[in-house]
Amino acid sequence: MSVSIRVNGRNHTLEVDPSTPLLYVLRNDLELNGPKFGCGLGQCGACTIILNGKAIRSCVTATGDAHEAEVITLEGLGDADHMHAVQRTFVEEEATQCGYCMNGMIMQAKVFLDSHPKPSESEIKSALANILCRCGSHTQIVRAVLRAAAVRT
């Protein structure tokens, strides 16, 4: 079956089983490395992408559910020369150790800041609580999101 999706501003028509996890299509067919395979159960957040303006877990989202939708991955936020504010502040705050959760943290933070432009530290912690970080970069991550909020306002 053909599935048409718009990923990072580009239209794609793919011949895939619509039940295929969207993460597999993004990584294997479109060769995007931002979203990561973590748990495969939608619990860790490493695979987080933005689908029609909402942060979702691509490992448990069927590709067919994204038919004719707008998808943004980490690569779609910005690149090394033109980083999104959240990406830039993560780099400036050195907000990663292993970096595995970074995709989920950045994508979740971007969507959160879109609707909460002046968040408190506790609101940020709550918004990111469902993205698992095993290496303990939480302090730097919260600082990065606070800085991104200040830059965006």
How does this structure look, described?
With 153 residues, the protein is α+β, with helices and mostly antiparallel strands. It has six helices and five strands; from the N terminus they run ββαβββααααα. The chain has two domains: 76 residues, Beta-grasp domain (Ubiquitin-like (UB roll)); 68 residues, Orthogonal Bundle (DNA polymerase, domain 1), CATH 1.10.150.120. α3 crosses α6 and α4 packs parallel to α6. It is globular and about 45 Å long. The protein starts with a strand and ends with a helix. A five-stranded mixed beta sheet has the order 2-1-5-3-4.
Structural shape: globular
Major sheet size, sense and barrel closure: 5 strands, mixed
- The spatial strand order of the largest sheet comes to 2-1-5-3-4
CATH-defined architecture of the largest domain: Roll
* Global Rg: 15 Å
Task: Give me the strand/helix succession.
Answer: EEHEEEHHHHH
Number of E-state strands = 5
Residue share in helices?
25-40%
Look at the helices and sheets and give the structural class.
alpha+beta
Mean pLDDT reading: 95
Supply the number of helical segments: 6
Number of domains: 2
Distance between the termini: 44 Å
Give the C-level CATH assignment of the largest domain: Alpha Beta
- Identify low-pLDDT runs: none
Q: Kindly report the name of the CATH homologous superfamily of the largest domain.
A: Beta-grasp domain
In brief:
The protein is α+β, with helices and mostly antiparallel strands and 153 residues long.
